[in-house]
Amino acid sequence: MRIPTDVLAVLSDRTKIDGHRMALVGPRLTPALHQRVNEVLEAAGGRWPKTEGAHLFPVHAAEALAPVLATGEVVTLGEKRTLAQYFPTPDPVVGRLIALTDLELGMTVLEPSAGSGAIATAAAARGAIVDCIERDPGYATVLSDTHVARRVQVADFLTIPAEPRFDRVLMNPPFTRGTDMAHVTHALRFLKPNGLLVSVMSWTVTEQTGSTTAFRKLVEQRGGLVEALPARAFSQSGTTVDTVLVTIPATRPADAQPTIWPVRDLSAQDVEELGNPADIAAEIVADLRKAVAAFEEVAAALTKPCAHHRARRYRGQLTMPLLENRQEQCRL
Length: 332
Ligand SMILES: C[S@@+](CC[C@H](N)C(=O)[O-])C[C@H]1O[C@@H](n2cnc3c(N)ncnc32)[C@H](O)[C@@H]1O
Fold this sequence. Notes:
With 332 residues, the chain is an alpha/beta fold. It contains 13 helices and ten strands. Residues 87-89, 113-115, 118-119, 133-136, 139, 156-158, 172-174 line the site of S-adenosylmethionine.
């Protein structure tokens, strides 16, 4: 939201900042203006405990307010909550993620992109001691207010130096442009040697491309497991992006099995459009037989002396290079 000029004027001229505290000074604001100023301060991560008579921020108040004053814009908490409904991990996915984590009472858990705490809350409910990191001060404040976490740190997780002190890392990081791989790779460094990481990730990581090669190798080296989530698992959060759950141990277990990367299931509609696989295979076999017959015909014709003059044209085209190339392309 664009901040109205009267609210901006209060924020720039009538505040007194002392570390994480920010008090309003000067003549009392009308209740309506006070409410609108409060809305902006809350969006920047401030809370106003009645006993304090000031707003308290999870970071230095000047740091929280700087982007607001510089841009004259803010995403209000109301807007963020609406927006957050598009991203939080839905309960069934949280349930499956927790089921994979082998969580025990008193284990230490890191949630490094915690949002408003869908995963952190479920882990704490199972008796884990949860530390959270969240870049957005507004989400961090919402999460702090739930008191599910031992600590909520407002920071860019990717800039935090790794310390291997957690039993578990549970996460659903941002996906854009492969950042989920960067987040998970960094998060693995926070695990104790016998620790385990479970993350929601984009389906993209299952695809063999230049940008996934190193990550896929890391998962395979650690004996990681990859499980496809149902199609549209995040539709209630407003996105149809396909996702997987990736489980990676800190240390490769002695009995690790090769990682099996899931393949996309064709939807019923796709199957209908493409036809029955057995019929498709029979069609291909018939085509191949026709092709073989055509080759036989050319071969037979070339044995006749009257066709020898054409041999130069066909040499190197109809024979082994062509077949080898086709075989290579059609490996079953
Ligand atoms: C997909 S949401 C998931 C939220 C929460 N983990 C959940 O499952 O409901 C990703 C969260 O990561 C946060 N985030 C994005 N980049 C971050 C970073 N570099 N460091 C910490 N948090 C980040 C976003 O603000 C957002 O809250």
